[in-house]
Amino acid sequence: MTVGQDSLATGKAAETDVKIPDLWQEVRRVYGFPLTMFALAIVPGLNFTYSGHGGPCWFLIPLCFPYVLVFAVIRLFTVRIERFLWFRNFFAATIPLYIGLAFPLSAAATYSLQHTFGLTIPVWTFMKVMISPFPFWYFS
After folding, report:
1. C-alpha to C-alpha distances, 80 to 30, 70, 77, 84, 119, nearest whole angstrom
2. pLDDT tens digits, residue range 44-55?
3. Would you tell me the crossing angle of helices 64-78 and 123-131 to the nearest 10 degrees?
4. How many C-beta atoms surround the C-beta of residue 103 within 10 A?
């Protein structure tokens, strides 16, 4: 009997059978939407979507952090037990990193918006919108 047949015969999966997810693919999948929203605000040619006259991105950015949280919860509850630890560590490391990177990215976004449109937005306000788990305070 070979090693693969032995693990099938005993009903136990070999350690090599557990495929570890690709880190950068998961980062793109989870944080692609928030990073796209930051990029649209920072790049001068694309930040017209944040115009002071009701650009569509103002309605989408409050959904960035809830998107990440919902994706994390769904992923943690639907992943196989062999990958659960990897995803738990992934989200434990990347969610605080997202919150930490939100300030410099918000500063770059507000600087770009101010110099493109003259639209003055406090950095903390933009950051609060991007990391708020309850986006509806923004609309009140």
Report:
1. 18, 18, 8, 6, 47
2. 888 888 877 778
3. 30
4. 15
38 in Cβ contact with 60 (< 8 Å) = no
Answer yes or no: are the C-beta atoms of 80 and 65 closer than 8 Å.
no
Q: Please tell me whether residue 47 adopts helix, strand or coil conformation.
A: helix
Q: Which residue has the tokens 């950068």?
A: 24
Q: Determine contact, residues 41/47, Cβ cutoff 8 Å.
A: yes
Q: Which two tokens stand for residue 81?
A: 């037990």
68-103: per-residue pLDDT in tens? 999 999 999 999 888 999 999 999 999 999 999 999
Give whole-number Cα distances, 92 to 58, 64, 69, 98, in Å: 28, 17, 11, 11
